[in-house]
Amino acid sequence: xxxxxxxxxxxxxxxxxxxxxxxxxxxxxxxxxxxxxxxxxxxxxxxxxxxxxxxxxxxxxxxxxxxxxxxxxxxxxxxxxxxxxxxxxxxxxxxxxxxxxxxxxxxxxxxxxxxxxxxxxxxxxxxxxxxxxxxxxxxxxxxxxxxxxxxxxxxxxxxxxxxxxxxxxxxxxxxxxxxxxxxxxxxxxxxxxxxxxxxxxxxxxxxxxxxxxxxxxxxxxxxxxxxxxxxxxxxxxxxxxxxxxxxxxxxxxxxxxxxxxxxxxxxxxxxxxxxxxxxxxxxxxxxxxxxxxxxxxxxxx
Length: 301
Description:
Layout: E1 4-10, H1 14-28, E2 33-39, H2 47-52, E3 57-61, H3 67-76, E4 84-89, E5 92-94, H4 98-109, E6 113-115, E7 118-121, H5 128-132, E8 154-158, H6 159-164, H7 180-190, E9 195-197, E10 203-206, H8 214-232, H9 238-261, H10 268-285
Parallel strand pairs: 1-2, 1-4, 2-3, 6-9, 7-10
Antiparallel strand pairs: 4-8, 5-10, 6-8
Helix pairs in contact: 8-10, 9-10
C-alpha cells in the first residue's frame, strides 16, 4: 500500500524509461510511493532498466499488444490501500517539485483528477513553422482551471473515486488506434469527476526527429480526430458526424487561408479543424489510423 502508485506503461524504450526513473528519484524521496512499470514488450525490453534502478520498481510484463491492455495491467497493480494513482509516459522526464505540486493541488481543490502540462522539446533542426504555428505543443492553463482533456501522460486520479464507480477500465478497442485514455477520462468527467489543472506539475518529453515533419503531424491529427469521432458516434448518427466533419474541414481550410494571408503562417489551431474533420469522417466509415498496430509477439515460456 502507498499514498501514491505511479503507473508507467512502456514498450521498447529502455533508454527513455531509464531517464524517467532517474527523474523520479528525488521526487519520491521521503514519500510513500510505489512505482509500477508495465512492459508491453513480451520479451521484457525494460526489465534490466527496472532492475538496475535505484527505485523499488514493481515490474510486470503484459504480453497482449496494445496500450490499453498495458494500462489495464497497471490498474491491476492497485491495492485496496493505495490512495492515488498517477500516470506518466515512458518517454517523459518529471521536473523538480512535480509530485509535490500534484499533491498540493489535489489537497487544495479536493479534486478527483489533477493533470499537468507536458512540454514537448523539439529537436534543434526542427522546421521553424512547427514552433511558430504551435504544432506538437499541448495547451496550458492556469492552476485551478478545469482540466478539459486529461491523458495518461501526466495525471493523478483519486482512487476512492474510481472505486466508487466500480473501478472502470480502459477500452481495449482503442488499443491499436490510441485514445483509450481520452475515452477513460471522458467517462469520469461524464460521471461527475472534479478535474483540475495544475500548471506547476511539469513533465518534459523530447520529440524524435522523425516526428518533426508535416506527414507525422497530419497523421497524428487525423488519428486524434478518429478517436473523438468514435466517441461522438456513441451519441450521434453517422450522417450527423459526417456532416459535422465536413463543416470542420471547410472552416479549417478558410481559417488556414486567413492565417496565411494575414502573415501568421500555418497555425495548429486552424489546421486542427481540418484533421479533426477528416478523422470524424474516417471514424464514420471505419477507416482508422492504427498508429499502435503491431504483430502479436510470442510470450516467453
